[in-house]
Amino acid sequence: MNFVEKRKDLAGAEAVDASHADAAGSGEAKKSAFKRHYAWIGTCASLLLLAVSAVVLWKLSEEITWAKLSAALTGVGGAQLGVAFGFVAISYFFLTFYDALALKQLRLKVPYRITALASFTSYAVSFTLGFPLFTAGTIRYWVYSSRGLSAAKIAALTVIAGFTFWLGMGVVLGLSLVVEAGQLAGLAFTSIRVNQGVGVAALFSVVGYLIWVSIKRRYITVKHWRLELPGATVSFTQMLVGIGDVCAAAAVLYVLMPPELTLGFSTFVAIYVLAAMLGIASNVPGGAGVFEATIMLAMSSLPRGEVLGSLLLFRVCYYLVPFLVALAMLGIYEAGKRLRRRRAANDP
User: Whole-model pTM above 0.85?
Assistant: First the structure.
């Protein structure tokens, strides 16, 4: 997306007469009032989803003892953990291209090492603490502002990265639901036709979006800012990056699952994506509770203690360890900046 300055500052912007301005202001006021009036619906839906997931998770965990959970945690071998951390590295490597593609679309040149630092640390922290617009945005501003990026451009970058994530999620979910519709019907308590219908709808939505942005330049409005959407080429690249990230993240949990797991990877990815999407909808940091409840419900045929142990290890590998690494990297980065400033001040 090319970031376009505030409408009132756009060169060559068309003049708007007073009556149109008043009408636009009235329309914006009505939209704002409507959003405030119905904002509670989203909050209630999130709380309901969280409550249902907590009940399901509690019911599924009733038979789990500390001895079983401890055995599941200690039963994972070093080779398994090594492969899991390998997929963690691959997933976060793909995440760095979320920012790289956004910067390319914005026609901003930032060294990849800075892009990788900002992307990795912002995602690692926001995945753990939640509130991504605040946490990830703050870290991106901390890193990118030293490279001359304004807050508005960093906000545009964040929006583009979000498009990359959802394009990848849409394709992976759609393909998985179509290809593995039969097996997922029994796991998700749905029908084959419903799975195929949702999968086809997801794929058509992605294809429709690619066609829509390829016909001409498209813009979206966020508050008083206009953002140019990427064209088909960049959007297709975003889609591939998103697919790589989602599949690598799912692979982390897949290799940590109990040996009794007989599901194919494509089926498991669909379950993972569904659990992740429900976790995002709950607005809980990392989808905690909602994600676990969905996975445990789909994997109800496996020993529950072992599945819960795998989920806890997944949290450690994919969330906790990167979070600690990110904090260390940010500390080193800030110390390096202060040291360079001190040296520059002491130079004659």
Answer: no
